[in-house]
């Protein structure tokens, strides 16, 4: 392992760091304040965390990479959504069931040639199933809730990346 080499951050690095922080704060605000008021439901810490994680996960170095990361995250979440929903409509949470879903999800992602998304599919499945274990009465709702959280996080993350990157680039270009 090579030693860590510290580098002075460039203005673009600072703008990127500020952009990802702003996108995360916006997602947090939407999930914890705006949506609960509009939809009349309580803010859910798991939903807030999951949406903010989705925002951070799609915030990449370029707009194209950000959009591709959003597509990967959405695909992985959709696969997990289908698997978990089918399982939870038929059975209650079990560790063996969760393990089976991890195997099935991994094999499915391999079969469609999306090996890079196996980890995302697995992480989403684990979150859905563990939260379902904690909420057995509404366990079947968890896949849908995490899908919505993910879509909100992706949308805000990609939109902020595109918008804030443009603004940052314009500001930094004027400074040159």
Could you explain the architecture of this structure?
By secondary structure, the chain is mainly α. The chain has one domain. The chain has six helices and no strands. The longest helix has 35 residues. The protein is globular, with a radius of gyration of 18 Å.
Computed structural class: mainly alpha
Low-pLDDT runs of 5+ residues are none
The biggest beta sheet is recorded as: none
Q: Could you say which overall geometry the principal axes of the C-alpha atoms support?
A: globular
Summarize the structure.
With 176 residues, the chain is mostly helical. It has helices at residues 11-39, 45-58, 63-90, 95-111, 118-134, 141-175.
What secondary-structure arrangement, pairings included, does this model have?
Blueprint: H1 11-39, H2 45-58, H3 63-90, H4 95-111, H5 118-134, H6 141-175
For the structure shown, list the relevant keywords.
80% helix, single chain, globular, mainly alpha, 0% strand, 6 helices
